[in-house]
Amino acid sequence: RILSSSVALFLKNQGPRTSIIHIYEIQYRAMSAMNFRRYRFLSIRTGPCFGHTRRSIQYFSTSTSSVFNVKKNIKVKIVEVGPRDGLQNETKVLSPRTKVHLVQKLVEAGCKHIETASFVSPKWVPAMASSSEVMTGLHEWRLNRARGENDKNDPASSTVFSVLTPNIKGFEDAMNCGKGVVDEVAIFAAASESFSQKNLGCSIDSSIEKFAKVTEKSKEYGIPVRGYVSCVMGCPYEENIEVSNVVRVAERLMELGCHEISLGDTIGVGTPEQTIQLLAEVKMALDTEMIAVHFHDTYGQALVNIYAALGEGIRTIDSSVAGLGGCPYAAGASGNVATEDVVYMLNGMGLECGIDLPKLVQAGEFILD
Predict the structure, then answer these.
(1) What do you get for the CA distance between the two ends of the chain, in Å?
(2) Which of 29, 179, 333, 335 fits a disulfide with 323 by CB distance 3.0 to 4.6 angstroms?
(3) Any catalytic annotation for residue 327?
(4) A Gene Ontology MF term for this entry (predicted)?
């Protein structure tokens, strides 16, 4: 995650930062982060050290979870956003088959809620151009499994496949994939006016008015809607984000009918203290069960922020396999918190999430390759 001394010296000797040097630095950071994560979990993937990992889990589960005074059998829901948020700003556009294969591996690992695609303009997000093919491919796979399985508890049949639909056209495109293909749609607003203008091309109020059409239509189809609030702790264009702005946007999304609101630290500047203060205010407006958290790891604060959120009663966490992704409109922000890291921490705390860590690591290996 940090530039090596030789590369740092090279950059220093270049004098003023040129665009090519800046690109080199970003690429180097990204490659270092992925390789770091890959080899960090190698022992879990290959097996010999897994017994030690399990012993560590048993040790921590008797101590850490008592910080929150919670029962050991408490369940935490992981919303895996890798196939959508993780891949949306990759320069290499993956085939629909590869994306479907990734989701299949995540399902096999125990992920029960996966954000699989985004129905947006391919002009702005080329990586999501094949969303219809991905969703129909997953639906066919799920139907084939249902026909061949005698077990009613087949994980594919109970996994929620969610898609991002930022406007009514995106929603209609998602519904055109066919009945039963999409299990949930998601909409997103920002707590920052500047970010809303850059990302959505309109003000916060205008964006919410557009989302009202999506939520109204979703009721006709019986499709639940998840809401996102971006820039809850910081913005690449504004210095400070008032907590009152976050609460106001979250309340409006709830009023539109969103069953769950995910609070996103889009540029990864939040700290545990900020997390606690933010959630204290939001919980006064929303039921705790409705709130999810979505952290980026720009300053290495994602896990400790999740830890703080768990202490505030939050039981839904967004994360991305292999730490992939981030917002294409938030320059400089690193990827989402890695699902592998989150699962490892939850296991160590004795909290249940239902995800098989070695299989999850294999899914991460697949997409990194």
Answers:
(1) 19
(2) 335
(3) yes
(4) metal ion binding
pTM of the predicted model as reported, rounded to 2 decimal places: 0.83
Choice among 177, 258, 327, 353 that is catalytic: 327
The segment with the largest mean pLDDT, out of 26-30, 39-43, 252-256, is 252-256
With the CA atoms of 339, 198, 230 and 31 taken in that order, what torsion angle do they form, in degrees rounded to the nearest 10? 20
Residue among 139, 144, 131, 141 nearest 96 (CA): 131
How far from 73 is each of 61, 62, 155, 350, CA to CA, in Å? 11, 12, 20, 8
CA 4/CA 13 separation, integer angstroms: 14
Per cent of the chain over pLDDT 90 is 67
The tokens describing 53, both together, are 């990992």
Closest to 89 measured CA to CA, from 124, 54, 44: 124
159: nearest Cα among 110, 228, 105: 110
DSSP label of 180? T
**178 Rama sector, left if φ>0, alpha if ψ -120 to 50, beta otherwise:** left
The architecture (CATH level 2) of 54-368 comes to Alpha-Beta Barrel (3.20)
